[in-house]
Amino acid sequence: MAKGKKKGKKRKDGLTENGEIPDTSPTSSDALESDADGDDYEVDDSRSEPAPSPARRLGAGRVPRGARVGGLSIYKPGQGYYTRVGTAIGAGVLIAGMWNYLYGVLGVYVDAEKAWTFYVQLGVPTLVGALIGVVVYWLVGRKASTCDFMILTEGEMKKVSWSSRKEVIGSTKVVVFVVIAMSIYLFVADYLFSLFFHWIGVLHIARQAFGKAAGN
């Protein structure tokens, strides 16, 4: 309860101790509030407003969503860096392969007597690659939903508990041993079954391979 100046204690008949009628009308800046004992206190309604946040000062929808990096506007730069850069590099490799493919396909139409055909062979793959590069930039650097997905993906990858070097080496040894053991077991089982089926006349095995073992 707010503290204020005590104005006087009321009697049961509603008058103050001096026999005067108390003034209970609130003023423009003060209001009256009573406690359990019937005492009146002045309450100051003037309260300092908290400073608005930067986002509120800018207004809804006006919070800057990105920054310029190397002359390009990037959505949330610095977040999901490795995922976004890796995606861009992978797309660049695909674009380079597509450029080489188109360049080779258009090479059959190049005429040595017509110089413009060479420019077509060079220009068409370059133009297509540039257009795809713009689309990749928009997806990786500008589109909010795609960028947020990559950022969340990298965040989840950082939560993964990766195996130590010692654990990886131990697991690799176990896998190699099991593969070798299963290979030996299957070879021996296949050899014995081959001898058995040859002995009962179901299979005819070449004498050079199993003649002595089959007793022929």
Write up this protein.
By secondary structure, the protein is mainly alpha-helical. The chain has helices at residues 54-58, 81-106, 115-142, 144-158, 165-199, 207-214; strands at 30-34, 40-44, 66-69, 72-75. Helix 2 runs antiparallel to helix 3 (115-142), helix 2 (81-106) packs across helix 4 (144-158) and helix 3 (115-142) crosses helix 4. It is flat, with a radius of gyration of 43 Å. Mean pLDDT is 74; it is low at 1-6, 28-36 and 53-64.
Mean pLDDT: 74
Strand percent estimate:
5-15%
Spans of at least 5 consecutive residues whose pLDDT stays below 50 are 1-6, 28-36, 53-64
**Main sheet: strands, sense, barrel:** 2 strands, antiparallel
Features:
two-stranded antiparallel sheet, mainly alpha, 3 domains
In short:
With 216 residues, the protein is mostly helical. The protein has helices at 54-58, 81-106, 115-142, 144-158, 165-199, 207-214, and strands spanning 30-34, 40-44, 66-69, 72-75. Strand 1 and strand 2 form a beta hairpin.
Secondary structure blueprint with pairings:
Layout: E1 30-34, E2 40-44, H1 54-58, E3 66-69, E4 72-75, H2 81-106, H3 115-142, H4 144-158, H5 165-199, H6 207-214
Antiparallel strand pairs: 1-2, 3-4
Helix pairs in contact: 2-3, 2-4, 3-4
